[in-house]
Amino acid sequence: MKIALDAMGGDFGPPNLVAGAVMALCDYKQINKLYLVGDSAKIENELRKHQCNDSRIEIVHSTQVVEMSDRAWTAVRRKKDSSISRAVDLIKRGDAAQPLPRARLSFAHCQESIGRELRPCFRPRRMSSF
Questions:
Q1: Each residue's pLDDT tens digit, 57-88
Q2: CATH assignment, 2-114
Q3: How far apart are CA 110 and CA 16, in angstroms?
């Protein structure tokens, strides 16, 4: 299995995503290749913190990050070297599958880059306690 991970995504970016990627490599031996996409210096720094030098990891550098405040289609069209855009390019080439945390942005990138409509996925709703 080959996975592309937008290491700059999520609420906390590289620290949490790289830590999770390192744990996944330990737990799932069927992962043949893990592409960590984003700012290579930040990713390498996080890998050093976890003392990880697994040969299955390949870092794919990108110069742009899509912020949570960015609108999906605007980001798709204007941030061509964003980490999520580069990760979708890996899917388009057939090099990887990808877990996509920001559904709306992810679908927009895939539709624009791959040119096909994706089936919607259903996610559980968040609940707050009172």
A1: 999 999 988 877 777 777 777 888 888 888 88
A2: 3.40.718.10
A3: 24
